[in-house]
């Protein structure tokens, strides 16, 4: 066994065999799922005519494309130890704005505009990566500054106005339902494939193991022969590409975009990613846990709104979940080390 494999095995061997499959083991992995199911039952009993319907099911599972892509982009950098990329939401928004402006205002072909929008988002990831990895600037400073710049650019190119008018046919890349009336849109399945593919890479490929290894300890990773800086830079680029694709799909879904909307995803994005550390793999950022967390949040917000809560309840719910999730993540990380 190589030094790298030995170190990876030591990192992953965090729970003694005698403690596995006890109450603590199960609760640390599945408690959030149990609470999620309890919420579904509670809201179904309280509002059976509105919550326990196919329409509500479609909203919960089919309406979270934006948050799934944003959470996946944030996961890329967090997993390699870069806390945290604040520019993902603004990069997502700029991509959605660019495709809308280029197609609607400048009459570019919508597919060419989509490619340009994703390329610009990828370039933002490259710039972030170079400043953090090569120059050594603090991640939060770089990405927070970049977030502000991108938001300003998006407002500038739209003249502070929502842009709409993308072709109806283009919307099918996010809304197509395979001919099943009232079924889930293709955007749900794209997000599902994204997260499952991400999970496969992390669990079963050398790249994924190296990403985890770098996130755990850069110096040990470097001594073990891992190209640490290349993986860190690649994580920023991947985050940019995912944000760009998500922005294009979001614009297709709504027929355009409002530059100010992207910032509303910041809180739920962080809440989903951190809550995911209390699902399936306690104390570890993981795509499947994050995906479940996205739908947990959507269920809670929709249920509360159907019970009569006003729009402010979403911020309260997301904020409370984020505090709880970070607390759980801290406790679980402490227990697993």
UniProtKB/TrEMBL annotation:
Residues spanning the membrane: 28-46, 67-90, 110-133, 140-158, 178-202, 231-252, 264-281, 288-306, 312-332
| Entry's Gene Ontology molecular function annotations | transmembrane transporter activity
Q: Which InterPro entries match?
A: ABC_transp_permease (IPR001851)
Q: Which CDD domains match?
A: TM_PBP1_transp_AraH_like
UniProt keyword Phosphoprotein, yes or no: no
Q: Which UniProt keywords apply?
A: Cell membrane, Membrane, Transmembrane, Transmembrane helix
What Pfam families does this protein map onto? BPD_transp_2
Q: Does the keyword Transcription regulation apply?
A: no
Q: Where in the cell is it found?
A: Cell membrane
GO CC annotations on file: plasma membrane
* Bilayer topology term: Multi-pass membrane protein
Protein name in the entry: Ribose transport system permease protein
Provide the species name: Leifsonia aquatica
Per the UniProt record, the lineage of the source organism begins with: Bacteria, Bacillati, Actinomycetota, Actinomycetes, Micrococcales
């Amino acid at each position: 066994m190589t030094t790298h494999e030995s170190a990876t095995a030591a990192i992953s061997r965090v729970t003694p065999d005698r403690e596995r499959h006890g109450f603590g083991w199960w609760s640390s992995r599945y408690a959030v799922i149990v609470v999620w199911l309890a919420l579904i039952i509670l809201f179904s009993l309280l509002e059976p005519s509105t919550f326990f319907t196919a329409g509500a099911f479609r909203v919960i599972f089919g309406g979270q494309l934006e948050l799934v892509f944003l959470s996946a982009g944030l996961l890329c950098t967090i997993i390699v130890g870069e806390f945290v990329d604040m520019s993902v939401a603004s990069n997502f928004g700029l991509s959605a704005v660019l495709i809308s402006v280029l197609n609607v205002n400048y009459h570019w072909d919508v597919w060419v505009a989509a490619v340009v929008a994703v390329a610009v988002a990828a370039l933002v990831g490259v710039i972030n990566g170079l400043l953090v990895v090569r120059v050594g600037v603090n991640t939060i400073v770089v990405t927070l500054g970049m977030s502000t710049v991108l938001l300003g650019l998006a407002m500038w190119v739209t003249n502070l106005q929502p842009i709409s008018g993308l072709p109806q046919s283009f919307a099918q890349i996010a809304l197509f339902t395979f001919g099943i009336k009232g079924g889930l849109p293709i955007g749900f399945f794209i997000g599902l494939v994204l997260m499952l593919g991400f999970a496969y890479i992390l669990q079963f490929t050398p790249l994924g193991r190296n990403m985890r290894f770098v996130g755990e300890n850069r110096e040990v990773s470097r001594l073990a022969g891992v190209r640490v800086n290349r993986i860190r830079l690649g994580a920023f680029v991947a985050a940019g590409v995912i944000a760009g694709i998500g922005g294009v799909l979001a614009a297709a879904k709504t027929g355009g975009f409002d530059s100010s909307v992207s910032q509303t995803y910041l809180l739920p994005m962080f809440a989903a990613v951190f809550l995911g550390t209390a699902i399936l793999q306690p104390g570890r950022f993981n795509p499947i846990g994050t995906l479940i967390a996205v739908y947990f949040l959507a269920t809670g917000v929709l249920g509360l709104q159907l019970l009569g809560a006003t729009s402010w309840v979403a911020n309260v719910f997301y904020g409370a979940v984020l505090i709880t999730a970070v607390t759980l993540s801290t406790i679980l990380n402490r227990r697993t080390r």
